[in-house]
Design goal:
Number of strands: 7
Distance between the termini: 80 Å
CATH topology of the domain at 76-195 and 205-213: Alpha-Beta Plaits
Low-confidence stretches: 20-25, 205-214
Shape: elongated
Strand order of the largest sheet: 4-5-7
Helix content: 10-25%
Largest sheet: 3 strands, antiparallel
Mean pLDDT: 84
CATH architecture of the domain at 76-195 and 205-213: 2-Layer Sandwich
Number of helices: 6
Structural class: alpha+beta
Bound molecules: iron/sulfur cluster
Strand content: 5-15%
């Protein structure tokens, strides 16, 4: 009496013989071997040839920089007023809004001799930990002065943890023409209301660059 093989062994034997069948999705089965009379090699080259006429989706990054959507959430920016004073008032609302606990803020007191922002307080220490940040944008929604916005910069990869904790100096917007490095006295009025209620002059070039990117 011939020895009975197990069901799994029968499948392996059929695979080896090329008798494998595949499902067509509707429950009907047909042989895996194509019906075409052309040799398999010619069929393979046909697939390659067809690809030559399709739209190329390969991007040549980093040789050709990637252009993001205008409202892409990238690296944060701490903006300035048109005279160069900082918009951050050190209130910590951004840190409280952050679901990833990625922001650390310490507020400081402005004095008449050393002023960084209009009003009483400024952000003395400001850090964003990009190992934690998920770029959700909740922090910029929470900021009452529009100090914190997000740019389109996405190149944040690094090979060590320390360099991914960005400091205030790294996050501050650059000084534009007409701006003065802090600390300095208020140039646009006698109190902070003059900064927040003031209508920008026509043709002024001293507007924050990153504000329009969110
Ligand atoms: S973008 Fe989101 S995760 Fe990143 S710092 Fe802001 S609130 Fe936190
Ligand atoms: S960035 Fe905005 S929310 Fe955060 S501490 Fe400064 S003023 Fe407050």
């Amino acid at each position: 009496m011939p020895e009975q093989s197990k069901p799994g062994e029968q499948d392996m034997v059929r695979h080896a013989r090329g008798e494998v069948e595949r499902s067509t999705g509707g429950g009907r089965k047909r042989p895996a071997v194509r019906d075409s009379l052309m040799p398999a090699a010619v069929q393979g080259f046909g697939v390659t040839f067809a690809q030559m006429f399709r739209t190329v989706t390969t991007e040549q990054y980093p040789f050709e920089p990637k252009v993001t959507k205008a409202r892409y959430h990238g690296r944060h920016v701490l903006n300035r007023h048109p005279d160069g004073l900082e918009k951050c008032v050190g209130c910590e609302l951004c840190a409280w809004a952050c679901p990833a606990d990625a922001i650390y803020v310490e507020g400081g007191d402005n004095t008449e001799d050393e002023r960084y922002s209009p009003g009483e307080r400024y952000g003395a220490v400001y850090q964003i930990n990009y190992l934690r940040c998920i770029f959700c944008g909740l922090c910029i929604e929470a900021c009452p002065t529009r100090s914190l916005t997000m740019s389109n910069d996405f190149e944040l990869a690094d090979d060590n943890r320390r360099d991914l904790i960005f400091t205030k100096e790294q996050l501050m917007a650059p000084l534009l023409p007409g701006m003065e490095a802090t600390p300095h006295p208020m140039r646009l009025g006698d109190d902070e209301k003059d900064y927040y209620l003031r209508v920008p002059e026509k043709g002024s070039t001293a507007e924050p660059v990153a504000e329009e990117t969110v």
